[in-house]
């Protein structure tokens, strides 16, 4: 750190001993510092403070301190298993198990919990319980989205970058074509894709039908198995240009000499890719994968415009959940708590990124 | 012979890349072509070649529908005001801060830089809810009923969509890195000649910084023009609503796909004009972003 500080001194102006100049410089610096303090730092502190209360947006009542209640409500998970009823006379309407609702009602320790998932294991009915199943569902959806979108987006970006790494005639036009969706508003992108994903007459299903006549049209956005995947595809389409450009810059940093030497030695194209390109791109790829991951965690607009969290909560994400609760249902303290958890997740990925980048060096 | 073969292979490669590129931008072309058709034509023309068939189109009728049935001009005006003020002030505030930070000795300089680096990681989405909470309690002076009055909320205004996003750690670092590459000799000579630091900044430094200015300009333009989350939360009134939330509203309440496509075309065209004009700086700023 101290080394960096002394290096910085070489960029400072000499002859500014006069107090007036520095006073003027302070005027230059202060607006940014002031605005960052009020609109970034203060919200951060407020959300930490508010997360320990039951504050509501636009409410005349003063907030109460509730300790860790918001965090507990979000993160509480429990597991119970219910044995099948032995007494056959009690089987009613084919129901072999006691109703879980009755169990929850009769057990004071399970107060406030509801069912997140159920399955049969070891001849018992197993229940995963959560106090806020929708939040857990949203977290899982968000992770699922990340797992889908990152490989699609980074893989496609890598292929495009490899194809466009040399400056042949037309390369710039191609780069601009692949980059064009990036500058579009996500709202517009969502509107276009809603039309293109239309079950009967959308371009996508029409195109698949023309190649594969037996295809049963999928109603992409209204099918809980496919909605998130459809959103991942359009998100990758919209954003891939950024990763492509970054990887191209990374590729151009690999010395040409290495490839020349390799081809003299008779190395195949694949060997060149495997032993020169990939190692040379390590740092770039770590950066691209992790920054795409961070970006994917902030999935909100697509869900808000296209599916509103549906069908059957299949596309509810952490941020969508936070805005729904914190803004539309006015439980700002609860929403802010979600945002803190989201921020901690981002912080961990950023720290991982720093670690890995240093390691890749 | 070998040379000819190489050339053919190269040509085929380029041609197939262009084919892929056309498929890639097909959704964008689709919007513009669909905006000249009525709904039944859009659906019946949902094929690769029919898509571009405009012979039976309805001309500008969809555009008229948008202008007549939505407050499009209000939204457009709001977006223009928000975007232009944001672009000018963002460029100014962040470049000034970066310059002062770089060229002057500050007692807590390292702390300031570390603080900025820390804020760089904070995603806007993580602070947007408390931000809503804060702007409901901030004071503002307004001209109402023929007198100036203090109002204690920024809700439903244009300035609430501008001010919170003006200062930006990433832009400060972008300027900081660029100013580092400038020779300070000119500035020191001007200082000796008695120029004020404002004159030096505006007449020497900024004119030498066109690439980074263009980059920040286009990034801010895209951010403000395409803004969605913040206006949805803090600007609900129609009179202050910008284009993108307007689009979402129209999309949810309209059943006329042709008109929706016309709306989408109108708000996308300016973006492409700016993009094509400044693509050089946009590309270099994204590649610079990685080195941060």
Automatic annotation (TrEMBL), chain A:
First-listed, main subcellular location of the protein, grouped into a coarse class: membrane
Domain ABC transmembrane type-1: 139-353
PROSITE patterns: ABC_TM1
Compartments, record wording: Cell membrane
Topological category with respect to the lipid bilayer: Multi-pass membrane protein
Keywords annotated in UniProt: Cell membrane, Membrane, Transmembrane, Transmembrane helix, Transport
Gene3D superfamilies, sorted: MetI-like
Segments passing through the bilayer: 27-52, 143-164, 176-196, 226-251, 284-303, 332-352
Similarity field: Belongs to the binding-protein-dependent transport system permease family.
UniProt name for this protein: Sugar ABC transporter permease
Organism expressing this protein natively: Catenovulum sediminis
TrEMBL record, chain B:
Membrane-topology descriptor: Multi-pass membrane protein
PROSITE patterns reported for this sequence: ABC_TM1
Coiled coil stretches, renumbered: none
Keyword annotations of the record: Cell inner membrane, Cell membrane, Membrane, Transmembrane, Transmembrane helix, Transport
Transmembrane stretches, start-end: 12-36, 75-99, 111-138, 158-179, 200-222, 260-283
Location of the ABC transmembrane type-1 domain: 76-278
InterPro entries on file: MetI-like, MetI-like_sf
Subcellular location: Cell inner membrane; Cell membrane
Source taxon at top rank: Bacteria
Quaternary assembly: The complex is composed of two ATP-binding proteins (UgpC), two transmembrane proteins (UgpA and UgpE) and a solute-binding protein (UgpB).
Family the entry assigns: Belongs to the binding-protein-dependent transport system permease family.
Chain's role: Part of the ABC transporter complex UgpBAEC involved in sn-glycerol-3-phosphate (G3P) import. Probably responsible for the translocation of the substrate across the membrane.
Protein name: sn-glycerol-3-phosphate transport system permease protein UgpE
Source species: Catenovulum sediminis
């Amino acid at each position: 750190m101290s080394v960096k500080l002394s290096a910085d001194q070489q960029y400072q102006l000499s002859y500014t001993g006069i107090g007036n100049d520095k006073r003027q410089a302070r005027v230059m610096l202060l607006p940014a510092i002031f605005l960052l303090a009020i609109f970034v730092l203060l919200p951060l502190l407020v959300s930490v403070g508010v997360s320990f209360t039951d504050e509501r947006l636009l409410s005349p009542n003063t907030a109460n301190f509730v300790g860790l209640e918001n965090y507990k409500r979000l993160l509480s998970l429990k597991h119970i298993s219910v044995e099948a009823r032995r007494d056959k006379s009690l089987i009613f309407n084919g129901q072999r198990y006691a109703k879980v609702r009755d169990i929850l009602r009769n057990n004071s320790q399970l107060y406030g919990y509801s069912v997140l998932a159920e399955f049969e294991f070891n001849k018992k009915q197993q229940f995963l319980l959560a106090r806020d199943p929708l939040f857990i569902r949203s977290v899982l959806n968000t992770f699922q989205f990340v797992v889908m979108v990152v490989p699609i987006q980074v893989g496609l970006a890598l292929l495009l970058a490899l194809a466009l790494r040399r400056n042949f005639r037309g390369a710039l036009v191609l780069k601009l074509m692949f980059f064009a969706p990036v500058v579009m508003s996500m709202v517009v992108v969502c509107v276009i894709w809603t039309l293109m994903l239309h079950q009967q007459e959308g371009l996508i299903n029409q195109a698949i039908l023309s190649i594969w006549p037996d295809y049963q049209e999928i109603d992409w956005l209204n099918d809980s198995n496919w909605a998130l995947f459809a959103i991942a595809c359009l998100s990758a389409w919209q954003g891939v240009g950024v990763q492509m450009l970054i990887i191209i810059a990374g590729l151009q940093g690999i010395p040409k000499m290495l490839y020349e030497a390799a081809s003299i030695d008779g190395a195949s194209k694949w060997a060149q890719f495997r032993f020169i390109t990939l190692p040379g791109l390590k740092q770039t790829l770590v950066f691209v994968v992790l920054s795409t991951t961070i970006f994917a965690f902030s999935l909100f607009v697509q869900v808000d415009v296209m599916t509103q969290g549906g069908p059957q909560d299949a596309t509810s994400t952490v941020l969508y959940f936070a805005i729904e609760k914190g803004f539309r249902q006015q439980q700002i303290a609860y929403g802010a708590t979600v945002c803190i958890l989201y921020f901690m997740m981002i912080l961990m990925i950023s720290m991982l990124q720093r670690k890995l980048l240093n390691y890749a060096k | 012979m070998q040379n000819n073969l190489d050339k053919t292979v190269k040509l085929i490669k380029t041609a197939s890349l262009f084919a892929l590129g056309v498929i890639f931008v097909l959704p964008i072309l689709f919007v513009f072509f669909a905006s000249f058709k009525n709904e039944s034509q859009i659906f019946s023309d949902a094929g690769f070649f029919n898509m571009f068939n405009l012979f039976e189109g309805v001309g500008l009728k969809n555009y008229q529908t948008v202008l007549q049935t939505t407050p499009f001009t209000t939204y457009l005006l709001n977006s223009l005001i928000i975007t232009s003020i944001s672009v000018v002030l963002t460029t100014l505030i962040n470049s000034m801060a970066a310059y002062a930070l770089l060229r002057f000795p500050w007692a807590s300089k390292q702390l300031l830089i570390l603080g900025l680096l820390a804020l760089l990681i904070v995603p806007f989405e993580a602070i947007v809810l408390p931000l809503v909470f804060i702007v409901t309690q901030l004071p503002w002076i307004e001209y109402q009923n023929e007198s100036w009055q203090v109002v204690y909320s920024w809700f439903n205004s244009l300035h609430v969509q501008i001010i919170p996003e003006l200062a930006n750690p990433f832009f400060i670092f972008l300027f900081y890195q660029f100013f580092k590459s400038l020779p300070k000799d000119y500035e020191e000579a001007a200082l000796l000649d008695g120029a004020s630091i404002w004159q030096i900044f505006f007449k020497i430094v900024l004119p030498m910084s066109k690439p980074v200015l263009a980059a920040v300009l286009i990034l801010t333009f895209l951010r403000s023009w395409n803004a969605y989350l913040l206006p949805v939360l803090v600007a609900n009134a129609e009179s202050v609503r910008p284009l993108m939330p307007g689009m979402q509203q129209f999309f949810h309440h309209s059943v006329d796909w042709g008109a929706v496509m016309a709306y989408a075309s109108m708000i996308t065209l300016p973006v492409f004009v700016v993009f094509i004009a400044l693509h050089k700086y946009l590309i270099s700023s994204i590649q610079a972003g990685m080195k941060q």
